[in-house]
User: Fold this.
Amino acid sequence: MGGALVPPDEAGPDDVVLSWEGADVVAVRLPQLADSLDHILAAMERKKGKPLADLDRKAKQEVVRILEARGAFAVRHGVETVASALGVSRFTVYNYLNRDKDA
Assistant:
């Protein structure tokens, strides 16, 4: 996911501070969801062995299903980010999403 460890005294309000036997030991700084989407897309490209835009239509539809299950479209501009990575329009991504719901 791309999280980072920081000293507990440098923890921000969104960081998760971990304690051991009553003492704060470390804080975990999680990436913003938009950053996580970029990490997920990069991992999918590595798994597929080529840019997502080079996949055939069926494989792109599978990618959209996986991303929807991971909550990618709850992220602001998620559809636009995925559409750009797949080399398709936002309309096409919405069609892929709606196709699954109709099936």
